[in-house]
Specification:
Elements: E1 4-5, H1 8-28, E2 34-40, H2 44-59, E3 63-69, H3 75-87, E4 93-96, H4 106-110, H5 124-131, H6 140-153, E5 160-164, H7 171-180, E6 184-188, H8 195-200, E7 204-207, E8 225-228, E9 232-235, E10 241-244, H9 249-252, E11 258-259, H10 266-285
Parallel strand pairs: 1-11, 2-3, 2-4, 5-6, 5-7, 7-8, 8-11
Antiparallel strand pairs: 9-10
Helix pairs in contact: 1-10, 6-7, 6-10
Bound molecules: guanine (GUN).
């Protein structure tokens, strides 16, 4: 391995430490930042995320409000809960865990959240603000990737960045953030022609396709920085499973200048950025200055 390992686990602990410092200062002013998480149904992976989110929210000193609703919850009941959370002064951030059961319209639900409390940054107003370079709530995973890239490179200005994947949660906001930091950005996806050549020109590769080992090592430009957003569970020896990213880590780490591992790369940064966004939302709600180093 020749690449520098970008340790997301350690970086996330640092971000949570900063968040905890802001929470302490806010509490001294009589303000406790609060995060509400809504989980509809009992998807096993979502259960794990929600439990971890709750644990870390409490660890940094914030108030955690969990709302678990039955799988067959109807739209009006969920909308009623969101209205109540929007109006609750103790709640500064609202996250509705996705995916929702198929009978619920996630666009409608997400767009019912007060944009100022939309700590996922999925509300159309926040998407528009980010796209026009205005102050917004920024989706957590791309924000975490940006923080790691800025930390590693200092300035990203003028670098060629390729984002593989065009989801609303990662690919599109990631591209906007990189553009905001003056990268030359290409959004590639499953239909992109000559993807290998596109990736070979990139100083920064962000892989968010959700396919194990989709990016082979020989696509990586020597010295490039590789951010692997993929979290794929695959069969391993002895009937066990293990987590791998979207990039062939062993091969890519012989060529890249720096690379994030899976697990221990982007994953821990997502929850850290959710907590960061909640502090940001709380500061804004109280007319206080933006918390330094926690926003885009
Ligand atoms: N499900 C998987 N990741 C996420 C996320 O970042 N936010 C929400 N709301 N749901 C998710």
């Amino acid at each position: 391995m020749t690449a520098t390992l970008i340790d997301g686990k350690a970086f996330a602990a640092k971000v949570r430490g900063k968040v905890a410092g802001h929470v302490t200062r806010l509490k001294e002013m009589g303000i406790t930042p609060g995060l509400a998480v809504v989980l509809v149904g009992a998807d096993a992976a979502s259960e794990v995320y929600v439990r971890n989110k709750g644990k870390m929210t409490v660890e940094v000193g914030m108030a955690s409000f969990e709302h678990r609703l039955a799988e067959d919850t109807q739209e009006d009941e969920l909308m009623g809960l969101i209205d109540r959370l929007n109006a609750d002064p103790e709640v500064h951030g609202i996250l509705v865990q996705l995916p929702l059961p198929p009978h619920l319209n996630s666009d409608l639900v997400i767009n019912a959240i007060d944009p100022a409390k939309d700590v996922d940054g999925f509300h159309i107003l926040n998407v528009g603000l980010l796209g026009t370079g205005q102050r917004s709530m920024v989706p957590c995973t791309p924000l975490g990737c940006l923080m790691m890239l800025r930390d590693h490179h200092g300035s990203l200005s003028g670098l060629n960045a390729v984002v593989i994947g065009r989801s609303n949660i990662v690919g599109k906001p990631m591209a906007q953030l990189l553009l905001g930091d003056s990268c030359t950005v290409t959004i590639a996806h499953s239909r992109t022609k000559d993807l290998a050549d596109v990736v070979r020109r990139a100083d920064i590769v962000v892989a968010a396709v959700g396919r194990p080992g989709f990016v082979p090592g020989d696509w990586i430009k020597p010295g490039a920085t590789v951010i692997d957003v993929g979290i794929n569970r695959i069969e391993a020896e002895g009937g066990k499973t293990r987590l791998v990213g979207d990039v062939d880590f062993a091969a890519a780490s012989e060529v890249a200048g720096a690379i994030t591992p899976v697990p221990g790369g982007v994953g821990p940064m997502t929850i850290a950025c959710l907590l960061a966004n909640t502090v940001t939302a709380c500061c804004r709600a109280n007319g206080l200055p933006e918390p330094e180093g926690l926003t885009a």
